[in-house]
Specification:
The chain is built from 2 helices and no strands. The protein is an all-alpha fold. The chain has a domain of about 45 residues.
Length: about 60
């Protein structure tokens, strides 16, 4: 691999950073809201699954004891 001097490296880094498309404030806000909504829905789903399994297990165990 060819070695580059520090000046060339910095120029290459600046050129690559200039290619980056940064999200707008609105895109960041909407994405954050969607993450919170999906996390809440996932938490509710797993709480319901946990409740169902616990109720089923208690029903089965109450038959034996």
């Amino acid at each position: 691999m060819a070695r580059t001097n520090p000046l060339q490296f910095i120029q290459q880094v600046r050129a690559e950073v200039a290619k980056v498309v940064w999200p707008t404030r609105r895109e960041v806000f909407l994405t954050t809201v969607m993450v919170f909504i999906m996390a809440t829905l996932t938490a509710i789903f797993f709480a319901l699954v946990d409740l169902t399994i616990r109720s089923g297990l208690q029903g089965v165990l109450s038959l034996f004891g």
